[in-house]
Hints:
Blueprint: H1 6-16, E1 29-35, E2 40-46, E3 51-55, E4 63-67, E5 85-88, E6 94-96, E7 102-106, E8 111-115, E9 119-120
Antiparallel strand pairs: 1-2, 2-5, 3-4, 3-6, 6-9, 7-8
Amino acid sequence: xxxxxxxxxxxxxxxxxxxxxxxxxxxxxxxxxxxxxxxxxxxxxxxxxxxxxxxxxxxxxxxxxxxxxxxxxxxxxxxxxxxxxxxxxxxxxxxxxxxxxxxxxxxxxxxxxxxxxxxxx
Length: 121
């Protein structure tokens, strides 16, 4: 599994988490991978509201871009298809996502960590 490809991650989660085997529960997800070297953010959504990319503008109001795709919630449809979009991220931009919690990989600790903040620079 290549965790750098959001659509493939959502498809794998959907195959693994079948609603019928989980007491008919499902979940929504917004999954993004930021590549610092290219300043690009690849994202996919599974039934979750889009995140927002807020880019500062010179002497104007900030530019707000919706970041998401139209995938269904995870676990609802066995043959669901997921897609990803790639967005360039300007210097000084911030992203905001509606969520209860975030997971991020800590290179220093070499493990996944739970964070509660919904806005990141």
